[in-house]
Amino acid sequence: MDTDTSHHSPYVKQFSVFLINRAGALLSVVRLLEDANVLVLGLSLQDSVDVTVARLIVSDPESVETLFIEKGIPFGMCDVLVVQLRENAHGLSHCLTAFLQAETNIHFAYPLLIQPAGFSAIALHLEDIEIGASVLEGKGFKILRQLDISR
Questions:
Q1: CB burial class (10 A; 0-12, 13-18, 19+) of residue 140?
Q2: What are the C-alpha distances in Å from 33 to residues 29, 51, 58?
Q3: Which of 6, 25, 45, 49 is a good FRET partner for 17, with 20 to 30 A between their CA atoms?
Q4: Radius of gyration over every alpha carbon of the chain, rounded to an integer in angstroms
């Protein structure tokens, strides 16, 4: 799968970081990013007994990848589709209907912390990201690229 996040790609890079379940673990990562002038634009947490998986969309994925490598922070990366919901809450049902019609599954989803152009946006990890992007664009949805959500 192509993971290019250039301005031509319809995909946004997401980082998954495993955090030990202890107070301040997420704060440490967020402060590390802030110290590097990187903003967290999207965040999802999934807790388990021993670890928490923090999924992050950031303003500068290339810098974060380098920073995590330099600091020895274990992480994974994947592409997510970020969709602008112009109708806000009603836009979600239209978006989900489009995926149902395309018969593509959503593995996970979460809202962004920012509102690009004043509209809600949702990050989606899909069974087939290319089909998902094509279907949504065909239904008139705006797919946000990294440049659309970064500074």
A1: exposed
A2: 6, 20, 9
A3: 6
A4: 15
- Separation of alpha carbons 92 and 103, rounded Å: 16
Q: What is the 3-state secondary structure (H, E, C) of the chain?
A: CCCCCCCCCCCEEEEEEEEECCCCHHHHHHHHHHHCCCCEEEEEEEECCCEEEEEEEECCHHHHHHHHHHHCCCEEEEEEEEEEECCCHHHHHHHHHHHHHHCCCEEEEEEECCCHHHCEEEEEEECCHHHHHHHHHHCCCEEECHHHHCC
pLDDT over 60 at 7, yes or no: no
* Contacts of 66 by beta carbon, 8 Å cutoff, 6+ apart: none
Side-chain-side CA neighbours of 97 within 13 Å: the count stands at 8
In tens, the pLDDT along 42-96 reads 999 988 777 889 999 999 999 999 999 999 999 999 999 999 987 766 788 888 8
Which residue in 91, 122, 84 sits closest to 106, CA to CA?
122
Q: Tokens for 12?
A: 């946004």
For the entire predicted model, the pTM comes to: 0.86
